[in-house]
Design a protein that fits this description.
This protein is mainly alpha-helical and about 325 residues long. It has 17 helices and 2 strands. The chain has helices at about 5, 10-25, 40-45, 45-50, 70-80, 90-105, 110-125, 130, 135-175, 180-190, 195-205, 210-225, 225-245, 245-255, 255-275, 280-295, 310-325; strands at about 295-300, 305-310. It has a two-stranded antiparallel ribbon. It starts with a helix and ends with a helix.
Length: about 325
């Protein structure tokens, strides 16, 4: 695999290859002409050679902005960045990036093709996709786990604000429904307590959600707000509550043993991606396994369908059924 394909995100790779062909020409369809590269220190002025550039210079919009001073500043940054603790892929990319800067300085700023390569690589280095390009299926899986964890962090930090907005919508709808048309009153009834937003989110995610969605659109119409925004709020609030309102405890309370088994099995499987420290990982595993053993007889740890409710779980279910019968 060539250096560009292994280090540059797919949405930038063809652009980089095109700029390199325009700069270097080729001796056939695939091999750029070789150039002799001058020593880096020779290309830097005495001031630039000792300069430590902490932040990467932003990509310039105009190629004319890539003057000698700008090119030297970029090359100085790369020299420093290459000495830091960075991933192997970033090291490889910086070699490519450094080479482009050196060619541009050797060629002179009047060589716009060389500056165009620098500009294209600057844009890659500044792009989000550069830091999200996995090198393997395993790395991709870990990246997806990180993204999921980051989203959970956002829900944990800001989830309460979603709930506050939904409560305000509910209060505004209640006020608007007084003396309003029958469809507005019906929407208020369907979206009002004791029905929870979590229950509403679950129903909207189901197959038969047409009527409820219609009530959401009616509510948004009378309140003058975007229905898509309200649907997003409900979905995110549902996710937040399913995650942070202790699913495990809820499954135990409801005696939903298959759901609990699946939850614990998935958490054990994903735990190494979520907890980096080995000691913390071992502690979390101990906690999860203790919950597993409290409610299940495990015949195959890799298949939650073979986790059978133990005597304690069966007793809890029997007590729950008896309580429901008494209430009926």
């Amino acid at each position: 695999m060539d250096l560009i394909s292994s280090t540059v995100p797919d949405d930038h790779a063809e652009e980089i290859k095109k700029r390199l062909r325009e700069r270097d020409g080729s001796d056939d369809e695939s091999h750029p002409r070789k150039r002799v590269r001058a020593d880096t220190q020779v290309l830097l002025s005495s001031d630039a050679a000792g300069l430590e550039v902490e932040e990467p210079p932003k990509p310039e919009e105009d190629l004319n902005q890539y003057n000698v001073e700008r090119l030297q500043r970029g090359l100085s940054y790369i020299n420093g960045a290459a000495k830091r603790k960075i991933t192997p892929r970033t090291q490889e990319f910086l070699r490519l990036h450094k080479d482009a800067y050196k060619v541009a300085l050797e060629s002179g700023t009047e060589d716009k093709a060389s500056c165009a390569v620098v500009q294209a690589l600057d844009k890659v280095y500044y792009s989000t996709s550069f830091y999200l390009k996995p090198r393997s299926a395993e790395e991709f899986e870990k990246l997806q786990a990180f993204v999921k964890l980051r989203r959970l962090e956002l829900l944990a930090n800001y989830g309460d604000y979603l709930g506050q907005e939904l409560q305000q919508i509910r209060a505004n709808l209640k006020a608007a429904a007084k003396g309003a048309t029958a469809d507005v009153q019906k929407a208020n009834l369907e979206l009002a307590p004791p029905r929870t937003w979590l229950a509403i989110a679950d129903e909207l995610a189901g197959a038969d959600m047409g009527d409820l969605r219609k009530h959401v659109y009616t509510a948004c119409g009378v309140l003058g707000m975007d229905a898509h925004h309200m649907l997003w709020l409900i979905e995110q609030w549902g996710d937040r509550n399913r995650i942070f309102h202790n699913q495990v405890r809820q499954y135990i309370t409801d005696c939903h043993w298959p759901a609990l088994a699946t939850q614990i099995w998935r958490d054990l499987k994903e735990l190494p991606n979520a907890v980096v420290d080995p000691d913390d990982l071992a502690k979390y595993e101990t906690v999860l396994v203790s919950v597993q053993n409290e409610y299940f007889d495990v015949f195959d740890k890799d298949d939650p369908q073979h986790w059978l409710p133990n005597q304690k779980a069966r007793d809890l279910l029997q007590a729950k059924v008896a309580k429901l019968k008494k209430r009926a």
